[in-house]
Design a protein that fits this description.
Layout (H helix, E strand, L loop, with lengths): L4 H26 L7 E4 L7 E4 L13 H14 L6 H35 L3 H48 L4 H7 L7 H24 L5 H10 L4 H20 L1 H26 L1 H7 L2 H53 L11 H9 L3 H41 L23 E4 L3 E10 L5 E11 L4 E4 L6 H8 L9 E4 L5 E4 L8 E2 H6 L4 H7 L4 H10 L4 H6 L5 E2 L1 H4 L2 H15 L3 E5 L7 H13 L3 E5 L11 E5 L5 E5 L10
Parallel strand pairs: 3-7, 6-12, 6-13, 8-11, 11-12
Antiparallel strand pairs: 1-2, 4-5, 4-7, 9-10, 13-14
Helix pairs in contact: 1-13, 2-4, 2-13, 3-4, 4-6, 4-11, 6-9, 6-13, 7-11, 8-11, 9-11, 17-20
Length: 658
């Protein structure tokens, strides 16, 4: 026997009050913060280094407060760019669908009452008429419900698209992606933030919007309560229908399994491309490949969004059938099953007056179900709001860091203290753009962590003066090139160098982009850029492959348009020779070759260096091979203790080479 409505309402109110009180207490408890003191080193208007005197014991906690609503508004202003945007239109579509669904629910309750009243009054003709009316309206109601699902799903995809595009534009602007992983220490996993966290934020945001606006009416529980109290024949009919309907719907849902597998694969590929960008950020930065990498990222993201939209449309179409067969038609079958005892003579349920039968039918209370759903919705909304606050805080964090990095501001946790007097500030030096010369005029070599490698570096190299850079590990060779590539700030003095694009870097492990064989040679250009610039054509590219003795790749791999994972397909020596062909394609004024021929035979290496001289490409080479001395006129020797030598190479020079 169900409890009386008044007692039930009292119990629900007490339970709801306790739940809300507990939720408020937890939020207040979580609101306490542990403040970590920070001290700024080398203050500057553009660059901020921060040393933390105490490590926080956990990630910052998010709270539902005024700051959360400000952050949420800022992110939503990116996701919904204006009141006349398509995103705002889908938000209105969701709102209109919610109103239409509420009206449909009210209509269903009213018609259900009339149908059940005809059952109680044993009016068979009127029952059949009202049941047919109810059945005729079900397809429209099913469409309304799935239109709501489509609006929520499309709104989520559009929010994710706009926020992702905005953050990728900031992330791949200049060297921001390099600074975030190498200079700034606030974010350790930008790939997770740019993929999973944005997705969860958009999901939580749209779900909260719909859950607050409309409670869920659980018709199946109501039907179960009625049928379970009216004998064994009714559950048997319902069970038989559920078996048939379940088998039918299970057959229709089969494609979802393969579509879900593809979805996870595309999600994995998208995250993989983001992780490649982080792993190879230095090489990409030297190549100025940010625009090319953005195209690759957006192409993968477009494939993912296209599949997700196809999956959404399939689920919407299936949902119409699912709701009609598994929900609304099941209600019709339930009504029919419930009606059987009322139209049988001498059934126990027929005892008493019609009013008594009606009371027995309804007294177990619609209000109890409504109250339970309202309390459940309130608790769910509070929990979802807290989850949304966490996602909002994480996405806001990367948004803030990206904005500051693009303004030249970054923070770094210092690990060690440099000894000796300070030599300046990050960014205090001056960079002068000038063709055909590289000059270090009292420029210190300092790591982002503040370690001083060379206090005062002075030398000048003009076009045609090939330089061999040597010294032990950790002496500053790579640091020199990072300063030249403008990846690290200049702490003092004046650095004169050619403009961006006229200085080319080839590392020991060359970066191979995702794309065709042609893309490997012309990187970071695209084929369209190659044709537009008139830089070269496929015949020229083949000549470059001939110079590095890789012309057989065209036949082996199937031509210029072959797409493969070239990091795995090519051997170490082939990748180094592809990088040299890339150098010949771009024809820069200066080239930095960092052990870039270590896996290449001496004769091939000799022909490649000879062509660089013919093409008037001035070389900065890091190598331990004595065979390369003849291709250079000067050497820069760093001893790893803060001293260096810059001298002409004599034929009998023996003091370096290790």
């Amino acid at each position: 026997m169900a409890p009386a409505p008044s007692k039930f309402l009292t119990q629900r109110n007490v339970t709801g009050a306790l739940a809300i009180s507990a939720l408020i207490w937890l939020l207040k408890r979580k609101g306490t913060k542990r403040i970590t003191k920070q001290r700024t080193l080398w203050p500057s208007n553009d660059v901020h280094y921060v040393i933390k005197e105490e490590k926080p014991k956990g990630p910052p906690k998010a709270h539902v407060n005024a700051a959360f609503f400000r952050q949420l508004y800022k992110l939503l202003s990116i996701g919904v760019p204006g009141v006349v945007s398509p995103e705002a239109g889908f938000a209105l579509l969701v709102a209109a669908s919610l109103v239409a669904r509420s009206l449909c629910d009210l209509w269903m309750i009213r018609v259900s009452t009339l149908i059940e009243g005809s059952i109680v009054n044993m009016d068979g003709p009127l029952f059949k008429k009202r049941l047919i009316t109810f059945l005729a309206a079900l397809p429209l109601i099913s469409v309304v419900n799935n239109l709501l699902k489509y609006g929520i799903g499309e709104m989520k995809l559009r929010l994710r698209t706009n926020i992702t595009r905005h953050l990728l534009d900031q992330y791949l602007k200049g060297f921001t992606y390099y600074k975030m992983t190498n200079l700034d220490t606030r974010i350790a996993n930008p790939d997770q933030l740019l993929t999973t966290d944005i997705d969860k934020f958009c999901d939580s945001c749209t779900d909260l919007y719909s859950n607050i606006a409309k409670p869920i009416l659980d018709i199946s529980i109501y039907v179960y309560r009625l049928t379970s109290s009216l004998g064994g024949q009714t559950p048997l009919i319902m069970f038989g229908y559920l078996v048939l309907a379940g088998s039918f719907l299970t057959h229709l849902r089969k494609p979802i399994a393969s579509m879900t597998v593809k979805e996870q694969r595309l999600e994995g590929e998208y995250r993989h491309i983001n992780s490649r960008l982080i792993t190879n950020s230095e090489e990409i930065a030297f190549y100025r490949g940010n625009n090319r990498e953005k195209l690759t990222l957006l192409a993968s993201f477009h494939k993912l969004i296209k599949h997700l939209r196809s999956l959404l449309e399939f689920k919407v179409g299936l949902g119409v059938i699912d709701n009609f067969v598994g929900k609304y038609t099941a209600t019709v079958v339930g009504f029919y099953a419930v009606s059987i005892p009322f139209f049988q003579k001498n059934h126990p349920v027929l005892s008493g007056t019609p009013d008594h039968r009606f009371k027995n039918y309804y007294e177990n209370g619609r209000m109890m179900i409504k109250m339970a759903e309202a309390i459940g919705r309130l608790i769910l909304a509070g929990r979802e709001m807290t989850r949304l606050a966490g996602f909002t805080a994480r996405v806001t964090e990367i948004h803030k860091v990206l904005e500051e990095l693009n303004q030249g501001k970054y923070q770094r946790t210092m690990i060690s203290d440099s000894k000796g007097p300070p030599i300046g500030e990050p960014g205090a030096g001056k960079i002068v753009a000038k063709d055909n010369i590289i000059r270090f005029d009292h420029v210190p070599l300092v790591t982002p962590n503040g370690d001083i490698l060379i206090r005062d570096l002075c030398f000048s190299v003009e076009s045609g003066m090939n330089v061999l850079v040597c010294g032990p590990n950790g002496c500053g060779k790579s640091s020199l090139f990072r300063v030249l590539g403008e990846l690290w700030p200049v702490w003092g003095g004046v650095l004169t160098k050619p403009p961006s694009g006229k200085l080319f870097y080839i590392p020991q492990r060359p970066y191979m982009t995702l794309g065709t064989l042609r893309d490997q040679v012309i990187y970071p250009h695209t084929q369209a850029e190659m044709q537009r610039r008139g830089h070269a054509n496929d015949d020229d590219l083949q000549k470059f492959l001939d110079l590095v003795q890789l012309s057989h790749l065209l036949e082996r791999e199937g031509g210029w348009d072959t797409v493969a994972d070239w990091m795995d397909v090519l051997s170490g020596g082939e990748k180094q020779r592809i990088a040299m062909a890339r150098l010949f394609y771009h024809k820069p004024q200066f080239a930095i070759l960092d052990e870039c021929t270590s896996a290449v035979s001496v004769d091939v290496e000799d022909s490649m260096y000879s062509y660089c001289r013919e093409a008037n490409i001035t070389l900065f080479t890091v190598s331990h091979r004595r065979s390369l001395w003849k291709h250079h006129e000067y050497y820069l020797l760093m001893d790893g203790r803060g001293s260096y030598q810059f001298k002409p190479i004599e034929s009998d020079t023996e003091e370096f080479g290790s």
